[in-house]
Automatic annotation (TrEMBL):
Single GO biological process annotation from the record: carbohydrate metabolic process
Domain Glycoside hydrolase 35 catalytic stretches: 39-186
Protein name, as recorded: Beta-galactosidase
Residues covered by region (Disordered): 651-672
Organism: Streptomyces olivochromogenes
Matching PANTHER family: BETA-GALACTOSIDASE RELATED (PTHR23421)
Domain of life according to the entry: Bacteria
GO terms for MF: hydrolase activity, hydrolyzing O-glycosyl compounds
Record-stated family: Belongs to the glycosyl hydrolase 35 family.
Length: 792
C-alpha cells in the first residue's frame, strides 16, 4: 500500500535568548536552549541521558558501570540525590562509601559524561517517604510547600549537596549540565521557584534547571525546562486494569508530549484549572522514557527488549530532542539504619515494593547484567551520536493517513523528521501485548518543499510484524548522497582514508541502497545488482553481513563504504576509541572503552570480537596475543579458552512450602506483600552451598535461580541479601554483594512463599499459573569475566 507524507516548508528560525538559561561565562562549548532544540558549542545537540542511582550500587564498581553506560551511547548520567539515603538520622549527613556523591560526579567528568543531580528534596524513586527522612515529616505538617518549618531543613540539605559538588559546575570545567528541582509536583509553581532560588543561593549552578512536566503540571513561567516521559508498562495501576491506555499511546507517532499516567496513583491525572506548559517556547525533552519497569506486589509487569527499543525510536520520530531513560541502570536499596528504605504500604504508599531489589528490568541490571534492551537502545544512540545534530532541528511530520484511535492496529504507524530537502523516516510496527499485523506492498512517498519527492523503495516491501526502524532520506556521507536506504544508519568510522557508513538491515525487508548518480563516479558491490535509472544508482539484492561492503568512489574523489550488517549482527555493534583510533567493534558481550584498553565482559568460554579498522599492532590479553581471523571486512580476535571448573550449584530442599498466607490489602485496596512472619510459617526453604573462593570471584558473579512462587528472599545467616516478586523472570543474586561479616560458610538460604489462589495480583501471561506452588527448579552460576585487551 502506498503511504504519503508532505513535509511543510521549513518553519521560521526557533526562538533564542527567550529563556533565562545561561552557561558559565567562557565555557568552550556553551549550552543554549532554543524553542525547538538545544545547542552546544553553537551546534544542535541531542543528549542521551540515563538514570543511575549511585547510592543503590557499590562505589567500587561505579567506574566500570559508567563506562558501560557510555559504551551504550549514554552521554549524560542522571541520578536522584535521595535525602533519606544520606541523612536518615537528623544531623548525621553521610557522603561516605556508596553515598559519595562527589566521587560519582568526578567519575562522570573523568570519562567525558555530563551529570544531572536530581536534588529533590522530594524524589520518590520508590523510596520511603519519596526520599524524605522520617524526622523531616515529624517536623512539618506542610511538606513540599513554602512552610518555614519545611524550608529550613531543605536549605540545609541543599547546602550539603552544594558543598559536595563545589567546583564541579561548568564554570570550573565540571560535568553538571542541569539540575532538577523536586519531582512530579504539579500544582505549586511558586514553591518550585522558591526551591530553585534556594538551590542557587546554596551555591548550586548549571546552565539548565529542569522539572518533570507530566500530568498537566504548572511550572513557574520560563524558570524550569519541562521534561517529559513515557513508559511501556506500569506497576502503579490496578491489578485488574489491563494494559493502560497511557502506555499504549507511546507506540504511536503523535505530537502530544504529556503523559498524564505517570505516577497517577499519587496525584490527579489532570490539574484542574492549570494551563498546559507552552510547547512553542521549549524543546521536546525527556527524562523518564521507560528503560524498564519496577514490579509492585499487586502488579508485576514484564517488559520485553523490543518494547523498550520501539518506545525509544518512536519518541525520536515524534520529535524528541533529548532521550532520557529511567532507569538505564538498576540497583539495590541500601540497608537503612532505622528502617527499610523502600516504598511500601507500611509507609502509607499505594504500592508495596521489594525491600531490596530495584533492578527495574533496566538495560543494565541490578548487578551490572547487560540485557538485550541495552543492545537495542545502543543502535539508536549510535545513530544520534553521528546524526543527532541533523535530526534535532528537523520537525516531526505525520502522514496524511494516521491511525483513527489507540485501538487502530491496522494503520501503519510512521513519521518523518525532515527539513526542506532531506530527513529520516521512522516506522514502528511493534507494541506490547497486542501484536501489530504485517503490512505487505508498502511504499512511502515523502514530498519535500525544496526538493523532488522521494518514493521508496523501488519495489513494494512488507513491513514485518514487530519491526521498528529509521531510514535515511538524502543523507550526505563524505560527498556521497544516499537518497535512501532500506536499512538504519548506525554510525560512521574511518578505515584507511575511507569513510564507512555502517547500516543495520531489518529482518524481512530487502536491502536497497539508492545513490544520487551525480555524486557517484564508480560502485563496487559484493552481491546483488546495480542499476542506473532516474538519476540514481540503485543497489538491490545485497546480502547483509560483515562482508556486505559497497565501495563507492564519489564524483569529487572521496572513497565511501556502505557496510550493511544483518539485524542480529548490528545489535552487537559498538563504536569507540581504542588503540589510538575510533573503531567499530562487534561483540555480543559487554564492551567498554577505557583509554588505551578495551574490556570485554563475557561469560563465554572463548569470547571473541570483530574490529574495523584493524589495529596496526597485534592485540593481547595479559601479554598473550589473541588469534586473528577475517570476518568479512573486519578482523575477528579470539581469546584463549577458559573453563569454569566449579561444579554446578544445587539447591537442596530443606523444608517444603506450607499453605499460602491469606492476602492482606493496603491503601486503595491493593494486595500487600506478605509479612515477615509468613516466611517463617509458610515458606519453602532451600539451601545453596557457596563456592570456597567466593571472596576472590570477579564482580558480576551471580547465582541464577529459576523458581516458581509468589515472593522469594535470600539470606546469609539472618541477613537479607536479595529478594524478588515472581513475574516469570530468572532471579539473579549477586554473590559479590554478600556481606563480608556474614557466615558465608553456611551458604545461602532461599525462602519462597506460594501465591494464594484468590490473591488480587497481576502476573504476566508468560508467568503461567503458579498459585499454591513454591519451588526452585534449578540454579546455575552466571560468571562474567573482564578481558582487558591492549595493542602490542
Amino acid at each position: 500500500m502506498p503511504h504519503l507524507l508532505r513535509v511543510p516548508a521549513p518553519p521560521a528560525p526557533p526562538l533564542t535568548g527567550h529563556l533565562p538559561f545561561a552557561d558559565a561565562p567562557g565555557a568552550p562549548d556553551p549550552i543554549e536552549v532554543t524553542s525547538r532544540y538545544l545547542t552546544r558549542g553553537g551546534r544542535p545537540w541531542f543528549p542521551v541521558s540515563g538514570e543511575f542511582h549511585y547510592a543503590r550500587y557499590p562505589a567500587r564498581d561505579w567506574e566500570e558501570e559508567l563506562l558501560k553506560m557510555k559504551a551504550g551511547g549514554v552521554t549524560v548520567v542522571a541520578s536522584y540525590v535521595i535525602w533519606i539515603h544520606h541523612e536518615e538520622i537528623e544531623g548525621r549527613v553521610r557522603f561516605d562509601g556508596d553515598r559519595d556523591l562527589r566521587r560519582f560526579a568526578e567519575l562522570c567528568a573523568r570519562h567525558g559524561l555530563d551529570f544531572i543531580p536530581r536534588i529533590g528534596p522530594w524524589c520518590h524513586a520508590e523510596v520511603r517517604n519519596g526520599g524524605f527522612p522520617d524526622w523531616l515529616l515529624a517536623r512539618t505538617r506542610a511538606p513540599r510547600t513554602d512552610d518555614p518549618a519545611y524550608l529550613e531543613p531543605v536549605r540545609g540539605w541543599f547546602t550539603a549537596i552544594a558543598q559536595q559538588l563545589r567546583g564541579l559546575d561548568r564554570a570550573h570545567g565540571g560535568p553538571i549540565v542541569a539540575i532538577q528541582i523536586e519531582n512530579e509536583l504539579y500544582d505549586q509553581p511558586g514553591h518550585l521557584l522558591t526551591l530553585k532560588r534556594m538551590a542557587q543561593a546554596a551555591g548550586l549552578s548549571a546552565p539548565l534547571w529542569t522539572s518533570t512536566a507530566w500530568g498537566g503540571v504548572r511550572l513557574p513561567s520560563d524558570e524550569l525546562l519541562p521534561l517529559y516521559g513515557g513508559y511501556t508498562e506500569t506497576f502503579w495501576t490496578e491489578a485488574d486494569g489491563g494494559w493502560p491506555d497511557t502506555c499504549r499511546k507511546h507506540f504511536f507517532f503523535t505530537h502530544q508530549r504529556d503523559d498524564e499516567g505517570i505516577g497517577a496513583d499519587l496525584r490527579p491525572t489532570t490539574v484542574r484549572g492549570g494551563d498546559p506548559t507552552p510547547t512553542d517556547r521549549f524543546p521536546w525533552a525527556t527524562c523518564e522514557l521507560g528503560g524498564g519497569m519496577a514490579v509492585a506486589y499487586h502488579r508485576r509487569p514484564r517488559v520485553e527488549p523490543d518494547d523498550i527499543g520501539a518506545l525509544g525510536l518512536t519518541k525520536i520520530g515524534c520529535g524528541s530532542v533529548w532521550q532520557g531513560y529511567y532507569m538505564f541502570h538498576g540497583g539495590t536499596n541500601p540497608a537503612g539504619e532505622l528502617t527499610t528504605l523502600q516504598e511500601s504500604h507500611a509507609t502509607g504508599y499505594p504500592n508495596d515494593l521489594p525491600v531490596l531489589t530495584y533492578d527495574f528490568q533496566a538495560p543494565l541490571g541490578e548487578y551490572g547484567q547487560v540485557r538485550p534492551s541495552y543492545h537495542a537502545l545502543r543502535l539508536q544512540h549510535l545513530l544520534l551520536a553521528d546524526f543527532g545534530d541533523l535530526i534535532a532541528p528537523m520537525e516531526s511530520v505525520l502522514p496524511e493517513r494516521q491511525p483513527a484511535s489507540q485501538s487502530d492496529r491496522d494503520t501503519l504507524r510512521w513519521a518523518v523528521r525532515g527539513d526542506g530537502t532531506s530527513g529520516f523516516l521512522f516506522v514502528n510496527n511493534h507494541q506490547p501485548h497486542e501484536p501489530l499485523p504485517a503490512h505487505p506492498g508498502t511504499t512511502f512517498t515523502v514530498d519535500f518543499p525544496d526538493a523532488p519527492a522521494l518514493t521508496l523503495p523501488s519495489a513494494p516491501v512488507t513491513v514485518p510484524t514487530g519491526a521498528y526502524f529509521c531510514w535515511p532520506l538524502r543523507l550526505d556521507i563524505a560527498g556521497l548522497r544516499l537518497d535512501w536506504a532500506t536499512a538504519q544508519p548506525v554510525c560512521r568510522v574511518q578505515d584507511d582514508g575511507r569513510t564507512v557508513l555502517v547500516l543495520a538491515a531489518t529482518d524481512g525487508v530487502p536491502v536497497e541502497l539508492a545513490l544520487d548518480a551525480g555524486t557517484v563516479a564508480s560502485v563496487d558491490t559484493p552481491s546483488g545488482a546495480v542499476d542506473k535509472a532516474d538519476g540514481r544508482v540503485l543497489i538491490t539484492g545485497l546480502r547483509p553481513g560483515t562482508d556486505a561492503l559497497v565501495q563507492v568512489r564519489t564524483a569529487d574523489g572521496n572513497d565511501v563504504g556502505l557496510l550493511v550488517l544483518d539485524a542480529t549482527t548490528a545489535r552487537t555493534a559498538y563504536r569507540g576509541t581504542a588503540w589510538g583510533a575510533e573503531r567499530l567493534v562487534l561483540s555480543p558481550d559487554s564492551v567498554v572503552f577505557d583509554q588505551d584498553e578495551l574490556r570485554v565482559h563475557s561469560s563465554a568460554s572463548r569470547p571473541s570480537f570483530a574490529v574495523l579498522p584493524t589495529p596496526a599492532r597485534p592485540l593481547t590479553v595479559a601479554g598473550a596475543p589473541l588469534s586473528a581471523t577475517a570476518d568479512g571486512v573486519l578482523t575477528r580476535w579470539t581469546t584463549e579458552d577458559w573453563a569454569d571448573e566449579d561444579s554446578a550449584p544445587a539447591a537442596t530442599l530443606v523444608r517444603p512450602a506450607g499453605p499460602p498466607p491469606t492476602t492482606a490489602t493496603g491503601p486503595l485496596g491493593r494486595a500487600s506483600a506478605p509479612a515477615d512472619e509468613h516466611f517463617a510459617a509458610c515458606a519453602a526453604e532451600y539451601h545453596v552451598k557457596l563456592p570456597d573462593d567466593l571472596p576472590h570471584r570477579p564482580s558480576g558473579t551471580v547465582l541464577r535461580v529459576h523458581w516458581t512462587g509468589d515472593v522469594a528472599r535470600a539470606y546469609v545467616g539472618d541477613t537479607l541479601v536479595a529478594d524478588q516478586f515472581f513475574s516469570g523472570r530468572v532471579w539473579d543474586i549477586g554473590l559479590d554483594r554478600l556481606p563480608a561479616a556474614a557466615p558465608r560458610n553456611r551458604g545461602l538460604r532461599l525462602l519462597l512463599l506460594p501465591l494464594a489462589a484468590d490473591a488480587p495480583v497481576h502476573l504476566p501471561e508468560r508467568a503461567g499459573d503458579v498459585t499454591g506452588r513454591a519451588a526452585v527448579w534449578r540454579v546455575e552460576w552466571g560468571t562474567s569475566r573482564a578481558w582487558a585487551v591492549r595493542a602490542g
